[in-house]
Design a protein that fits this description.
The protein is α+β, with helices and mostly antiparallel strands. The chain has helices at about 55, 65-75, 85-100, 100-115, 120-145, 145-165, and strands spanning about 10, 15-25, 30-40, 45-50, 60, 80, 165-170. About 50% of the residues lie in helices and about 25% in strands.
Length: about 170
């Protein structure tokens, strides 16, 4: 996928960033192009090799229509839970690494549901907070809404989901 200066992109597990420049860097006797992006939430700069964008999961911010689809995932359907903490954590970690916003939404939904039933471990609590942050920041950017307004929409979708939640336990 090609990006240009000024594009808003999502860098998995870091959130929304803006491509500030495309730079050429010499590494040994090779010259490579890099996207220099500034992560909005931390104001940090990340350099991603142009040829590596799909491998790291760099993608454009969702469209408004796609935000509706994400909210629908939060509102509807079943949630997979695991009896085994390690299996659950591994599966959720993998979903978070993909950068797929629907997978992040599934993590948020399943950990939110689980937190209603029992206390989460420290690592799962951190993952829940990260998933919430990533969803709120990207959906707010995509819908051109304030983060607190988007967070309220996400919470409402999760609350609706909790009412009719059917869980399926995987072993």
């Amino acid at each position: 996928m090609e990006f240009k200066v000024g594009d808003k992109v999502v860098y998995p597990n870091h959130g929304v960033g803006i491509i500030e420049q495309v730079a050429k860097k010499s590494i040994g006797d090779m010259v490579s192009s890099f996207y220099c992006l500034r992560i909005l939430s931390t104001d940090s700069t990340v350099m991603v090799p142009v040829g590596n964008t799909s491998a790291v999961g760099l993608r454009k911010v969702l469209s408004r229509r796609q935000t509706t689809q994400v909210l629908k995932v939060l509102r509807d359907g079943e949630v997979a839970t695991y009896d085994d903490w390690k299996g659950r954590f591994q599966a959720n970690s993998e979903k978070m690494r993909t950068g797929d916003i629907l997978a992040v939404a599934e993590v948020l939904k399943s950990l939110t549901m689980l937190s209603e039933v029992k206390p989460l471990s420290y690592r799962e609590r951190k993952m829940l907070d990260r998933a919430r942050f990533l969803l709120v920041s990207e959906l707010a950017e995509a819908a051109n809404k304030a983060a607190d307004k988007m967070e309220a929409q996400i919470d409402a979708a999760l609350a609706e989901s909790m009412k009719g939640m059917r869980t399926k336990v995987e072993h």
